[in-house]
Each structure stands twice: as structure tokens, then as C-alpha cells.
What we know:
single chain, 177 residues, alpha/beta
Amino acid sequence: MLRKLSSLLLGAAAALVISVGAQAQEIKIGFSMSLTGPLAANGKQALLGMQIWEEEVNAKGGLLGKKVKLVYYDDQSQAAPVPGIYTKLLDVDKVDLIIGPYATVPAAAAMTVAVQRKKVFEILFGLDVNHEFKYDRFFAMIPSGPDTKPSFTAGFFETAMAQNPKPQTVALAFADA
């Protein structure tokens, strides 16, 4: 995952060459992350991976010869604070690049700001976030392929239907985020 994230952010940083001033000493990457609330366990892991990436990249001289600085805020695993967080990241913190939070609900809320501002927007593990937006500057790091929603369940149901006797009912457990 770190290699994919590194490649992804390196590509995005390369796209910033024109927009990041020659005088800037760092490339600021902004995002929200679920550090509290029901998604916190996964959000904290995602943040740790990003912080490890930041340290490794900076130890090697940074991106485009500039240090990377992660700027992030807790979205509390909710949609409500996310548009304000991304607005602050762009208007107050003046980040050079925004990336998405962990999970579908916060990522969908962040999409509104990315679309309004015409920003390239990458997310981590959001389920079909771009379905309604159809935003051409969006991409997701999720191993489900282009048909996101059915991809997560197809194998389970195919396996169930191969059983003898075939199951008559199904129970689903999920996080209500």
C-alpha cells in the first residue's frame, strides 16, 4: 500500500510543478481523516501509513526537491464537518493538493468541495463515491475495479449459490457510518 500511495502522490505532485511556486519550500497535502468515531480504527491506520510515507519521502529529499507536509483534521467519521475542513485546507492552510479521507461517507462529502474548486481528487477506500458526480478529475485507490458496489459481494454470492443445499437466507453486518 505504501508503494501505491507513494506512486500515486508522486504522480499528483508532478502535476503540481506549475502550480507550486518556485519559492515554496514544501508541498502541502491536505485531507480529513476519521480519527474519532466509528471509522477511527481504520482512519488511524491510514494516517499512520501516510505519515510513514511522508517521513520516507522527506528522508530521500522530498518530492520535486521539496519537503512534503501533511495537513489534516479529524472528520469524526461524519460527513457534516468535511466540506468545512476541505474549504479550510484550501483557503486558510493553502494546501497544494487535497486527497480524500478514509471511507465513503466522508469522501462523498469532500467531493462537493473538490468539484466546486475543480481540484484533482483521489480517495482511499470509498465505495462508488463518484457514481453521482461523474467527476473527471477523481480517482480512487480501491481494489474493486470499475463496478465497485457489486464487486464486494459477487464472490460471496457465487460461493453461496454453489453450495448444496443452497442457502435460503442471508444476513449482512455493516458499520452504520
